[in-house]
User: Which sequence fits this backbone?
């Protein structure tokens, strides 16, 4: 977070010269009496006729509105008023965190109405900006009818259950880390009993309903709000498919950018921050200021390269008319291996014969059998010490060999000619490295599994972007 603030302060200073706008601190009472604390930033000078075009910015889980103030300055410098609240249960705001549920949507609606009612702010030209949890709040508010005129989301979800429980098997380590980012006493009492179940992957039908009610994907076909989705190349919490699936369903003007930022193993901001902000500001200029700047006429999908090492560090961009099509590269191995509950199986594939750029979700097919029980399987794909993708699934192996296929995390990786990929199989992601804490649920101590065949299918771009 310190790196985030330092970088944004430096950028804001450059963009907002000759001076930064001062933030006015406000407190708003919600309909249940809870107070939401926020900052209001306005450009210097006289507002245009109709008031300042404006942006409401929403922070991530465990964050606070001050985290976004340096970034907010870049929008103020470009002629936007900005309202940045502490989400309920965060920062100085009261109330409990209920994970972008109906209560938080009601808060956003009240905040919007207050902001739009300011005489110096346009009551119609207001956009939303949200990152991670804040992106979920923005999406859920839009599908609930809050009348934002433009929307930008960063490294967030559209289907929260599928993001955290792909193949009905939870990313227990990530869920635990998210839960720990908010003090237990600030979590909605109605949700607290579900936290251990979320971490443990229990009571899945109820968890599916709980997270489904906080997801917007099923309603996006009715969304006509101009929407720009920014998603990370390597984000093991909310992967590329979370944005691609949303992009495909949206009915209004839309753009998608996939770049070098995100949740772990990436971070925000990334080396492409200046380009992201240029796209972001142009999107708001077009739909909040009605400036015909062509941002909505450019190729709607853009994918950024992996950053090159200095001194050749340069951003390469590829443009597409739609989410890029891929072709398949299959890697197979037939060696027979057995593993115990705390053991692992490792397959090393032959070195790649040419450079490829993986984009999307690898698919792993495993043929295995067990005489006891092996309730779930975790797979990690790595090159050297770098994890390229990983995933897990519930299984129902028996005495007779059975084949199971499942998707891994949808991400993007440049794989150079000669790269040797390793596949790690086990009960947890720690079988690849004790520091790999994404999947932590254990299999029973007496579990045994015999693996006889694996096929790893990589989706790759027809032409590489990165160098």
Assistant:
């Amino acid at each position: 977070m310190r790196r985030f603030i330092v970088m944004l302060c430096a950028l804001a200073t450059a963009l907002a010269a000759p001076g930064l706008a001062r933030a006015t601190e406000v407190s708003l009472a919600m309909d249940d009496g809870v107070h939401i604390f926020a900052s209001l930033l306005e450009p210097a000078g006289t507002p245009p006729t109709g008031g300042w075009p404006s942006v409401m910015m929403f922070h991530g889980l465990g964050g606070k509105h001050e985290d976004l103030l340096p970034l907010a300055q870049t929008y103020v410098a470009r002629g936007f008023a900005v309202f940045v609240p502490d989400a309920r249960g965060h920062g100085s705001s009261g109330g409990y965190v209920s994970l972008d549920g109906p209560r938080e949507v009601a808060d956003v609606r009240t905040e919007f109405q207050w902001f739009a009612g300011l005489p110096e702010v346009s009551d119609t030209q207001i956009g939303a900006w949200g990152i991670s949890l804040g992106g979920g709040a923005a999406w859920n508010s839009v599908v609930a009818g809050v009348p934002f005129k433009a929307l930008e989301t960063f490294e967030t979800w559209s289907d929260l259950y599928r993001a955290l429980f792909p193949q009905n098997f939870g990313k227990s380590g990530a869920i635990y880390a998210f839960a720990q980012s908010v003090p237990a006493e600030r979590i909605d009492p109605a949700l607290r009993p579900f936290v251990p179940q979320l971490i443990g992957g229990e009571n899945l039908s109820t968890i599916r309903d709980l997270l489904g009610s906080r997801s917007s994907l099923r309603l996006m076909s009715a969304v006509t709000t101009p929407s720009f989705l920014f998603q990370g190349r390597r984000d093991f919490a909310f992967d590329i498919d979370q944005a691609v699936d949303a992009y495909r369903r949206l009915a209004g003007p839309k753009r998608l950018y996939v770049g070098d930022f995100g949740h772990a193993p990436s971070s925000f901001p990334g080396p492409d921050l200046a380009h992201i902000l240029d796209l972001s500001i142009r999107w708001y200029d077009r739909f909040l200021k009605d400036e015909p700047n062509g941002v909505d006429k450019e190729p709607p999908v853009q994918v950024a390269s992996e950053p090159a090492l200095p001194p050749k560090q340069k951003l390469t961009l590829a443009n597409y008319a739609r989410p890029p099509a891929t072709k398949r590269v299959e890697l197979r191995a037939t060696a027979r291996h057995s593993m115990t509950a705390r053991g692992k199986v490792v397959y090393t594939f032959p070195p790649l014969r040419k450079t490829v750029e993986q984009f999307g979700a690898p698919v792993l097919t495993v043929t295995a059998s067990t005489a006891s029980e092996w309730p779930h399987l975790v797979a990690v794909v790595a090159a050297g010490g770098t994890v390229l993708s990983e995933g897990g699934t519930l299984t129902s192996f028996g005495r007779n060999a059975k084949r199971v296929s499942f998707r891994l995390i949808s991400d993007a990786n440049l794989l150079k000619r000669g790269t040797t990929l390793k596949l790690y199989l086990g009960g947890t992601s720690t079988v690849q490295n004790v520091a790999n804490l994404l999947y932590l649920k254990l299999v029973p101590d007496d579990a045994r599994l015999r693996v006889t065949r694996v096929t790893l299918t990589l989706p790759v771009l027809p032409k590489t972007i990165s160098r």
